[in-house]
Amino acid sequence: MSQELERARDNPPPPISRRWGRWIALAACLLAAALLAPHAGTLSLSLSLAWPAAERWLALRGSPVVHEEVVLGIAGRNVRADLYRPPAPRGGIVLVHGLSSLGRRQPDLARLARLIAERGQVVVVPHIEGLARFRLDGSEVQEIRAVADYARRRWDHVGLAGFSFGAGPVLLAAADVPDLRIVGSFGGYADLRHVVLFVTTGVHRWQGQRHVERQEPYNRWKLLSLLAGFVASEPDGVRLQEIAARRLANPADDTGPLQARLEADGRAVLALVMNDREDAFERLLAALPPAARHALERLSAVRAVSRIRAPLLIAHGARDPSIPYTESLRLAAGAGQRARLTVFETFHHTGPPSEGLSLAAGIADGARLLQLIDGLLSRR
Q1: How far apart are CA 238 and CA 233, in angstroms?
Q2: Helices (H) and strands (E) in the chain, counts
Q3: Helix (H, G, I), strand (E, B) or coil at 92
Q4: Which of 47, 68, 105, 267 has the most beta carbons within 10 angstroms of its beta carbon?
């Protein structure tokens, strides 16, 4: 798979005009850990033009959907969730957001939930507080597992899908939830240590091949917020969170005085996040506090995929600057024959670009997208 992608990058088809690029983007951006097309009124038409088989799935509008907010009493805590309910449900699916302060109200996820509900599925979108605060501590896995059990008690043919960093806890939870119809990972990760390497140095590897991608500075501060939750020393954890929050709000903010107050554990985490040298990564990773190293291993999804009994849909954008697509290749290898892997050549972390697409790549991704949708909504 990676060799095919490399050949495609070395010999790309000629780019197409911006106008046609947007049409193909409309055909390719209905689903993934992804940004849905803002031109919703023309979405059905553009998909039908790109792929005639879409006509059956995209029948005019869908069923009218009732949207309501519910509070689920789970494991001694209240979990807020949005419910999208069609009049005659044919099954259900739980969708889990990634690292987003908007959580379940992230606009692209809410739009996707409504589109799926219009096709006859009850959609449950829980608000996972840890993910909304850019944190992972394992409680997210328990909450997602409990929400999936809640859905299974009420509807038949229940699926479970996660996006971006939310896909990791989804896969860990799915390993212990029986009788799921489908499990989905869209833009997810296999091993958090690989993600740390990628975010800090741009390097990722698969089957002996080394790849280097340009990195987004914003991702470093999201990573710092994530790692701060793994620091057992409360003063350092709070200081790291404050540094991350300030730099996310203003990348030019001077956090030097706050950094100077960090103790040994905090300095070790910050050194890893600020590093950009591949040859220093293993040494800095080993210097992390033991609790942080253990959490990176415990929350890595690759350790769970072999125990998932449901069919597993795995999708990723080859241009993802936040989590490398090789993480999904690793997940699929760990899951074996139960996994169906889709790599979108034109997708980044939030969908396809609106220009610079090649005609062949855009059409191919549109076809892959529709096959993925069919798998996600199938009752078999």
Answers
A1: 9
A2: 17, 10
A3: strand
A4: 47
Q: HSE of 15 in the Cβ direction (CA atoms, 13 Å)? A: 12
If pLDDT is split at 50, 70 and 90, which confidence band does 161 have? very high
Residue 185 forms beta bridges with which residues? 162, 314
Number of neighbours of residue 276 by Cβ within 10 angstroms: 12
Six-digit token string for 308: 């998932």
* Residues shown for the chain: 380
With tokens 């390719």, the residue in question is 28
**Token reading at 37:** 């097309």
Task: Name the least confident of 73-82, 264-273, 278-287.
Answer: 73-82
Q: Are 146 and 125 in contact (CB under 8 A)?
A: no
Long-range pairs, 129-133, Cβ under 8 A, ≥24 = 129/103, 130/229, 131/96, 131/97, 131/98, 131/99, 131/100, 131/103, 131/165, 131/166, 131/169, 132/97, 132/100, 132/101, 132/102, 132/103, 133/101, 133/225
Contacts of 47 (CB under 8 A, 6+ apart): 26, 27, 30, 54, 58, 366, 370
What is the rounded distance in angstroms from the CA atom of residue 300 to the CA atom of residue 286? 17
Residues facing 81 on adjacent strands: 70, 126
Instruction: Give per-residue pLDDT as tens, 22-43.
Output: 444 444 444 433 333 333 322 3
pTM of the model: 0.81
